[in-house]
């Protein structure tokens, strides 16, 4: 294996989209940012230099960071931010992982434009468990606001209300033509009769997305850097944080075909419905030729999403077994949802909050990982509730008191403990999907359903053989999902909704995993250039 060095200069760059120009925060002046390429077992060193006026940190989403939590990146969870003018070298090893992941800023709303792909190739001489594609392409889906993104969320925090939705979605940084702005979208050149692998990443802040290509089937082969049993579909569903690799075989002819990404199931009140488009362009076809169009499912097409999600199975081959924990040490149930708390300084005297088990997470002033490693008291408590504090019907009756409790509370696990975690959407204000992301681990989704989780009946139907393994899971609107993982990575690991607005509102918590007794079971010390608060 190799050591690979990258340098990320985080700089402002004037960028034109939707026929207007604004400065955006970028990696090396690029949007989306440059792709990191490495092989399984390689070590990556990324020197991040902060040239902008904001505090900064970067997260390597899905990289397990075994014993190297200091390089994970969420600000105030595992590190203090890199201050303007400062730099920090993220140093980590890609242990036992291969596939598509991504990186993004993990502070403020900077990830809107500070993000890019991570491609982890299998070890040399280890083939993919599917036919080798002719070519591989990165497809990053995103969102674009005409106004300054930090201003959008700051306004919302002042008012206590929801922020403005984005003005467009993007495919590799481009919305494609939209009413009022006939700009050119992204073009993917292809040859006839070949198979391509698309590494699709949902980097949008607040939208689950449908993705589709006119006239072409997609064969799903991997999600969140784990292989799945291949299956064919017209449309994929992808939540913020998730990645999906698909094979696309081009036919013998020529032509141009629309590639489309559009939202799935916002809150019912949201009005955002802009489809981003790109073009699959067969070589030899005239640019002026008509494009074969397609339309994505409507945004409330829950059945499309459910069919897609229920088709996902771990490959579970001899070489890539699904090691689902069978004996469970901690059986947890977390409710996730929105609430309303008093806010004397907000326009309505109240503000929207979000919570897990009724705890709205309060960010600490120094990083939790430092507090844990150096035994600094008063930063967090280890009493995060493993079950909802009050039981009620999570999906039909609205509670009369929406208020949540605030706290920096963590759930403590011993090294190698196994966890079963049921994530139950409460739909207290409105049912919404919540893509929950767990740092530091992959987990298996052993079950999901609509309505209330039934602790007696539902576990009987769990798939403990070949459940999909991932790092970000969509908790269905008005329903639940059950995941299992083994706490074999010491440190402090953030878990949060990957809808950025919900993270901001407090839909987040962290697990603290103590060191084990063995020689390779403890958190390494922080690097010497570790940022100070
Ligand atoms: Cu991709 Cu904590 O985030």
UniProtKB/TrEMBL annotation:
Cofactor(s), by name: Cu cation
Question: Which terms in the GO cellular component ontology are assigned?
Answer: apoplast
Protein keywords: Apoplast, Copper, Glycoprotein, Lignin degradation, Metal-binding, Oxidoreductase, Repeat, Secreted, Signal
Q: Which GO terms describe its molecular function?
A: copper ion binding; hydroquinone:oxygen oxidoreductase activity
Q: Does the record bear Secreted in its keywords?
A: yes
Cell location: Secreted, Extracellular space, Apoplast
Q: Where is the Plastocyanin-like domain?
A: 13-124, 138-285, 384-516
Record's catalysed reaction(s) = 4 hydroquinone + O2 = 4 benzosemiquinone + 2 H2O
Which PROSITE patterns does the UniProt record give?
A: MULTICOPPER_OXIDASE1, MULTICOPPER_OXIDASE2
Q: Where is it mostly found?
A: secreted
One Pfam short name: Cu-oxidase
What GO terms describe the biological role, i.e. biological process, of this protein?
lignin catabolic process
Q: How is the cofactor bound?
A: Binds 4 Cu cations per monomer.
What's the EC number here? Answer: 1.10.3.2
* UniProt enzyme class: oxidoreductase
Q: Which InterPro entries does the UniProt entry name for this protein?
A: Cu-oxidase-like_N (IPR011707), Cu-oxidase_2nd (IPR001117), Cu-oxidase_C (IPR011706), Cu-oxidase_fam (IPR045087), Cu_oxidase_CS (IPR033138), Cu_oxidase_Cu_BS (IPR002355), Cupredoxin (IPR008972), CuRO_1_LCC (IPR034288)
Does the record carry Protease as a key word?
no
The entry sums up its family as follows: Belongs to the multicopper oxidase family.
Q: What does this protein do?
A: Lignin degradation and detoxification of lignin-derived products.
Protein name in the entry: Laccase
């Amino acid at each position: 294996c190799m050591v690979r060095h990258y340098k990320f200069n985080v700089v402002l760059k004037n960028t034109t989209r939707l026929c207007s120009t604004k400065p955006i925060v970028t990696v090396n002046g690029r949007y989306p940012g440059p792709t990191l390429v490495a092989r399984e077992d390689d070590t990556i060193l990324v020197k991040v230099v902060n040239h902008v006026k904001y505090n900064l940190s970067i997260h390597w989403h899905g990289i397990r960071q075994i014993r190297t939590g200091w390089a994970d990146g969420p600000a105030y969870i595992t590190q203090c931010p890199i201050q303007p003018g400062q730099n920090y070298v993220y140093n980590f090893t890609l242990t036992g992982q291969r596939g598509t992941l991504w990186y993004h800023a993990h502070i403020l709303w900077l990830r809107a434009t500070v993000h890019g792909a991570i491609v982890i190739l299998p070890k040399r001489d280890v083939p993919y468990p599917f036919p080798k594609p002719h070519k591989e392409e990165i497809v990053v889906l995103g969102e674009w606001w005409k106004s300054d993104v930090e201003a959008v969320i700051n306004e919302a925090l002042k008012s206590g209300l929801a922020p403005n939705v984005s003005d467009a979605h993007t495919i590799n940084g481009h919305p494609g033509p939209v009413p009022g702005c006939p700009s050119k979208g992204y073009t993917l050149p292809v040859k006839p009769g070949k198979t391509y692998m698309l590494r699709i990443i949902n980097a949008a802040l607040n939208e689950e997305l449908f993705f589709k290509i006119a006239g072409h089937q997609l064969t799903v082969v991997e999600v969140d850097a784990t292989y799945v049993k291949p299956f064919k579909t017209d449309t994929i569903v992808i939540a913020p944080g998730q990645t999906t690799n698909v094979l696309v075989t081009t036919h013998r002819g020529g032509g141009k075909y629309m590639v489309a990404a559009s939202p799935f199931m916002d809150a019912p009140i949201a009005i955002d419905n802009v489809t981003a488009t790109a073009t699959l362009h067969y070589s030899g076809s005239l640019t002026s030729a008509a494009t074969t169009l397609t339309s994505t499912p409507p945004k409330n097409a829950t059945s499309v999403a459910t069919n897609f999600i229920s088709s996902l199975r771990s490959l579970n081959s001899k070489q890539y077994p699904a090691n689902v924990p069978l004996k469970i040490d901690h059986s947890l149930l977390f409710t996730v949802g929105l609430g309303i708390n008093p806010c004397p300084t907000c326009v309505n005297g109240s503000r929207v909050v979000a919570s897990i088990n009724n705890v709205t997470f309060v960010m600490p002033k120094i990083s939790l990982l430092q507090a844990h490693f150096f035994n600094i008291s008063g930063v967090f408590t280890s009493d995060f509730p493993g079950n909802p504090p009050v039981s009620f019907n999570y999906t039909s009756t609205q509670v009369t008191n929406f208020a949540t409790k605030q706290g920096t509370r963590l759930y403590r696990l011993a090294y190698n403990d196994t966890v079963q975690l049921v994530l139950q959407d409460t739909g207290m204000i409105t049912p919404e999907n919540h893509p929950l992301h767990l740092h530091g681990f992959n987990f298996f989704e052993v079950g999901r359903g609509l309505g209330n989780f039934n602790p007696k009946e539902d576990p009987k139907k769990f798939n403990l053989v070949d459940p999909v393994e991932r790092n970000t899971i969509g908790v269905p609107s008005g329903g639940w999902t059950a995941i299992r993982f083994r706490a074999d990575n010491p440190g402090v690991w953030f878990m949060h909704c990957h809808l950025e607005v919900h993270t901001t509102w407090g839909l987040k918590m962290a697990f603290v995993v103590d060191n084990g007794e063995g020689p390779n079971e403890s958190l390494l010390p922080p690097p010497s250039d570790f940022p100070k608060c």
